[in-house]
Amino acid sequence: MLDIAVLVSGGGTNLQAIIDRISDGDLSGVRIVGVVASRSGTMAEQRAVRANIPVKIVCRKDFPDPEAYDRAMIAALSDWKPELIVLAGFLNLLGPTVVAAWRNRIVNVHPSLIPSFCGPGYYGIRPHEAVLASGACVTGATVHIVDEEYDRGPIILQKTVPVHADDTPQTLQLRVMQEAEQVILPKAIALFAAGRIQIEDRKVIILGGTEND
Ligand code: GAR
Q: Where are the beta strands (DSSP E) in the chain?
């Protein structure tokens, strides 16, 4: 059994996809031991409570400096002893001590094809606005290992979706979430659970072959 903790900030649709894949048997070797939300009152928190998953709120503004925030995050997570930490729409940067405590055991889902439309400022609806402004014909989502910088760590899985001529940022965001993020995030967790992820420098090796489309 792979024990995972999920970090959230907002709507929680990616968290819901993980919960649903566990209950329908696709992620049979996985258990969500806890959810950390970056603020209280989110839909993500409600989804966790509804699924009987313990929730803790760790809010950056409750701490005087980044180090105190990191210590609180490590303390909150350590109680549950997670083997993998999943950032599912989590919008804060994890500090270096948190990243070091779970080196190569933290994954993030990002709503674009990294290395495009990512990094500081590219969160939520913004990558989709930027994709439309760029005239790109395809976009998608990326699941990657988390290191000390936004959206930079080794890439595990990516999935493309088309950009349509009449897309708005909102229609594109929905397509990326439903057809890419919510597909590849559970898939990446399943690869960890099966012990099929190996990391060498900046490259992820998927033992037994790639799962990319
Ligand atoms: C998702 O699109 C996720 O990829 C994005 O925020 C949204 C949250 O959705 N994350 C980032 O932009 C991180 N850089 P959710 O809360 O409904 O899962």
A: 2-8, 30-37, 55-57, 84-87, 106-110, 138-145, 155-162, 197-200, 203-206
Q: What is the pLDDT of residues 174-201, one digit of tens each?
A: 999 999 999 999 999 999 999 999 999 8
Tens of pLDDT, residues 139-180? 999 999 999 999 999 999 999 999 999 999 999 999 999 999
Query: Which residue in this structure is represented by tokens 């005239």?
Result: 135
164, two tokens:
């349509």
Give the active site residue among 110, 128, 144, 164. 110
- Ligand 1 centroid distance, CA of 145 (Å): 16
Would you say 188 and 104 are in contact if contact means Cβ atoms under 8 Å apart? no
Closest CA to 65 of 97, 100, 21: 97
What's the rounded Cα separation, in Å, for the pair 160 and 32? 27
Q: Which domains does the chain have, with CATH numbers?
A: 2-206 (3.40.50.170)
Contact 144, 170 (CB under 8 A): no
pTM: 0.96
Q: How far apart are CA 32 and CA 169, in angstroms?
A: 31
Are 34 and 54 in contact by the 8 Å Cβ rule? The answer is yes
> CA 52 to CA 59: how far, in whole Å?
21
Q: Is the CB of 140 under 6 A from ligand 1?
A: no
